[in-house]
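Friendly challenge for the regulars: who can give me the structure tokens for this chain first? No prize, just bragging rights.
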Amino acid sequence: MLFAATVCNAQVVLWNGTDKEVGSDGGFWGRADATVVDEGGNKCLKITTKANPGGWANEHFNAHLPFSADFKGLRRLSFRIKMEPGHNVLLKLKHGSAEAHRLFYYDGGNTWKKLNFEFSVGPNNEDIADNPDDCWLEIWPFEDNDATHDAGNVGKVIYIDDIQVEGPMVNGSAIRTLADDALTDQQVIVTGSLSKGKYQDTWTGAWKNVDFDDYTTLTSKISADVCFLNLTGAAVADGDGPQLRTKNPNLLILSPTAFYDTDNVIRWDEVNSRNNTPKMVLTDAYPFYTSIDFHADVVEVTRNLKAGINSLCLPFYVGQAEISTNCKIATYKNGTTFTYADHAEANVPFLATAVDADAEKLNFADKMVAITPVSLGTTFVGVYAPQKAENLYGINGDGKLQKGGLTATINSFRAYLTGVNGAREITFEDETTGLTDVSSKTSDGRGECFNLAGQRVAQPTKGLYIVNGKKVIVK
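First reply, four minutes later:
Bragging rights claimed.
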């Protein structure tokens, strides 16, 4: 399945057995009796090594493909091969007098194996990859191609298919060509292929394994502003979600594969016919965005909740009992007036008055996460990315309305008021029992609520209270 997906998503296909014939323009030369055959329901190249019939030395031992193709900044060439014996397979890429060699060991068994040959480093790699016209490649199934020495390999049948240049790409460019942190859009769509593993080289005179990791490369190119990574157009193997979420822990990854059991990975749930993530983990210190609706089995939001009044904005429906014990939710009405409600809709900012103090995380279950809209409000505005808050009215750590100063900031999953014309009070209105005049003022110490015994009350119930020096009846 991986091979098929990789071919479908390859950025530069040099041979797939269907669009070129042997001897045609761009097709394999007829060395080693090259021919196109149907092998296991798939068209591929078949070559048979043979004794030198004359002509160029040892040409009967390789598959030779001339090509002209834009590598698009990619540097990894791969193909599939099947033959009986295990041996070092030699790949030569040539352009003019420049020639780059790579070796990879095929362990035999007459089964299809994919071999990777990396050209991002090593002699002549830039000359070959940056001059894609009038190139050719040679595949030597037996790298020791002296006919006398390799007499035992004459007559061997080798199948070759799916020759391609691959790697991750964004907007038609190989990710490796971009500057670090160059990707700043909320959503980034990746095509091509993503994987990690090892390749082999010998240009230093000794065999060595070299790691390659597309996830490390992609992570270096995305900035902390990227919130949604769409990988559905890429072939993905050995997924590494934690690596990709290094810069923005809120990053959501839409992937065609499971990425193991990584948080914030959205995949298709065939049973329920919906996009689903087992767990979404969010923190208010980083931005959030989603371009699709999806279901989350569990949601964990790092967001300090103080006793008293808190502003919130979340991308899913919230009932008042889900916030905190004895919590009340109030949605915006007008000016500085809020109406008590039993819930808040997705992406709608609201106030929550909580009895519990200093809760660091909010936990939810079975949530439908909604697409992030262009606007999260006008006068009362939700926040999904940390930002400056100068001249904006927000709820401070003491649960009071406060105008932001020159250096003020506000984190994600909160909300602020604009255009309140210096108003100092927040008023809560209960449409079922009447007006409640309990209010929260700016942080000058006024506006607290006390019972008749002189004790401060964070969340008054029915009864008589002293608010701002006046008696107030809460019905």
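DSSP finds five helices and 38 strands in the chain. Confidence is low (pLDDT under 50) at residues 1-9, 432-446. Your move, everyone else.
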